[in-house]
């Protein structure tokens, strides 16, 4: 080829979906440009398996250091043939020289076991706990922490969805309900725990959840956006925060490595 390619290492939660959405927006922006303007082509592989196979074509063990970035893309100038390539790489930090490790081994190990927090809201867990626990077991979750507690106002406020934080009346409604009785908090563990939990719960609005899939938990147990049955960690950083918030004394088994790294 007459022009070089640019390899970019990126890291993110739900990385493949997020990058795919970003590239789709880029493509739409390029289509709106006049013929005299141009943007490079941006292409990516779609699965971790393809990513790994292509990684070994371009890199050796010595090329990788810690940081655990999740993929890179090959960017080609617009006039050249499209070619999709992608592989895992790493974000090089200031201390990389003393932390080198084999990321090929890391990739081959498969999905990491992560933690997520599920809070079953007042009035739900006391009636439905056996069924909820059975469903968690069927979905391959392990319960590594459990406690029932009466939430304080400050803790309840931290659980209010970000999209309603600017509405004082909505915040008050959420906090009033969350502090109206005893809640049950579970720390759950499994590969890809955060996303899997969100997939089970569904949207915050039970009516929307019902329209999407009646089997979603908020569709089954919720009656309104306030009394929707459950709070769940919506992202990995929030899961780390929630574990520290509700289980400061630790869990009933060794915490997963990623949580320990966040605490450093």
TrEMBL record:
Domain Nucleoside diphosphate kinase-like: 113-253
GO molecular function: kinase activity
Keyword Kinase: yes
Keywords (A to Z) from UniProt: Kinase, Transferase
InterPro entries according to UniProt: NDK-like_dom (IPR034907), NDK-like_dom_sf (IPR036850), TXND_domain-containing (IPR051766)
SMART domains from the UniProt entry: NDK
Matching Pfam families: NDK
Keyword Kinase: yes
Membership in a protein family: Belongs to the NDK family.
PANTHER family: NME/NM23 FAMILY MEMBER 8 (PTHR46135), NME_NM23 FAMILY MEMBER 8 (PTHR46135:SF3)
Protein name: NDK5 kinase
Organism field: Oreocharis arfaki
């Amino acid at each position: 080829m007459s022009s070089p390619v640019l390899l970019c290492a990126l890291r993110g939660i739900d990385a493949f979906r997020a990058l795919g959405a970003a590239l789709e927006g880029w493509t739409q922006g390029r289509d709106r440009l006049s013929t005299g303007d141009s943007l490079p082509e941006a292409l990516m592989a779609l699965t971790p398996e393809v990513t790994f196979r292509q990684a070994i074509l371009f890199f050796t063990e010595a090329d990788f250091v810690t940081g655990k970035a999740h993929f890179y893309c090959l960017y080609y100038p617009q006039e050249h043939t499209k070619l999709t390539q992608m592989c895992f790489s790493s974000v090089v930090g200031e201390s990389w020289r003393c932390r080198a490790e084999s990321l090929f081994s890391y990739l081959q190990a498969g999905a990491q076991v992560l933690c997520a927090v599920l809070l079953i809201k007042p009035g739900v867990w006391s009636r439905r706990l056996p069924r909820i626990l059975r469903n968690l077991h069927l979905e391959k979750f392990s319960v590594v922490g459990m406690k029932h507690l009466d939430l304080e106002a400050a803790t309840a406020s931290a659980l209010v969805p970000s999209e309603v934080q600017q509405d004082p009346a909505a915040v008050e409604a959420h906090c009033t309900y969350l502090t109206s009785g005893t809640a049950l908090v579970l720390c759950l563990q499994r590969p890809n725990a955060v996303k899997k939990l969100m997939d089970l719960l569904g949207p915050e609005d039970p009516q929307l959840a019902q329209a999407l899939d009646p089997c979603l938990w908020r569709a089954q147990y919720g009656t309104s956006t306030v009394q929707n049955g459950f709070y769940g960690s919506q992202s990995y950083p929030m899961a780390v925060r929630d574990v520290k918030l509700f289980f400061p004394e630790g869990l009933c088994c060794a915490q997963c490595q990623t949580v320990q790294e966040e605490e450093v």
